[in-house]
Design a protein that fits this description.
alpha+beta, Immunoglobulin-like, 2 domains, 5-stranded mixed β-sheet, 5-stranded antiparallel β-sheet, 23 strands, 12% helix, globular, binds ligand MTE, binds cobalt (II) ion
Amino acid sequence: MSDMLKPSRRAFLRGSAAAAAGLTAAGAARANGPDPLITEVQDWAVVFGDGVDATPYGLPIQYESDVVRRNVEWLTADTTSSINFTPIHALDGTITPQGCAFERHHSGAIELRKEDYRLMINGLVDTPLVFSYADLERFPRENHVYFCECAANTGMEWAGAQLNGAQFTHGMIHNMEYTGVSLRTLLNEAGLEAAGDLSDKWVYVEGADASSNGRSIPMEKALDDVLVAFKANGEALRKEHGYPVRLVVPGWEGNMWVKWIRRIEVTANAVESREETSKYTDTLADGTSRKWTWVMDAKSVVTSPSPQAPITHGAGPLVITGLAWSGHGAITRVDVSKDGGKTWETARLAKPGEKMALTRFYLDTEWNGEDMLLQSRAMDETGYVQPTKAQLRDVRGYNSIYHNNCIQTWHVKPNGEAENVEVS
Ligand code: MTE
Ligand code: CO
């Protein structure tokens, strides 16, 4: 096929839009000239495709090569203690493929064989225990879908609109189906009689990497829904997500989801480690700091259109879509505004919200081809409504970093491009 005859995707879509509007495909073709994609025999229809031995483990097709994690060079001094971002602007549905799910390491992703893996439970327990990977596989398993959001997600946006893309402003999040053993099961195996009254006890969890990323978790949460997980989305955890075993702490800040978990100590007090004092702590407007902020409050973002996912068609039908989540439970409603929060329309949830998991929303709308100040606002089952940036700053001031769950604004221009902006 000569290049001149190659149809643009846009022309093809014009044809399908015409068909949807009630014109026959032939009518559309008459209007635009013959459509070579329909009238010519294409290369792919006359040759054999790849055999079943070509790709023992499949990767995305080359045309999707831009759907990848990205980091922001100036954010961190080096890439071993750093972060990259999930390409949420290019994904749909709710499950994040492991291969493009954000990574956050404090001392790099380590390589640990299952055979070399050990998990110790010690401290105020009846019998200190050490489990091998094979031991963990013999306890009853559970499956749950949960989001994991780094407390630093959206953290660069406190002082003003900063990074131009949903991937960078909101991409420190992923949502996977985990398979694992409940932490309750393992703690009961070690026995908690020795701990006495459990209501004021803690567990201190640490990883096998150089940073150890030690965190204290109140016993109430540890006995509730925390998982010691070894599979994500059906397959082994990827190295960067904690292979072979990580902790899953539903609804709570990502920092507590200790990867390569090697030790769980039952303690009488919180350890007050680096990760829960000087880091992951919220500065308030009056200059004091809040001691603990574990639960991730309700939040949402429009993933498309957005700066990396501009509108590529003219006025008319437009699908606005995004993600909503809450660490307090299920998302019950998401509203979308096209005018910077003056008026709101209720979006359609793809499925009823699930506790501590991402919810996909859609607003199937008509675009008039004019400027939009696109926003989304999430509500969860507790009645909590996602705050505006101004409301959050009233409490937290301008110098905060972590736990920024404010409403995001994209300025969508008549040419379809979008930009990260702030509205007052
Ligand atoms: N666990 C260990 N052992 N080391 C780490 O550096 N980073 C934490 C947490 N668990 C970290 C860790 C942080 S800050 C986050 S947000 C999550 O892991 C990120 O998990 P992910 O890399 O699978 O996305
Ligand atoms: Co984090």
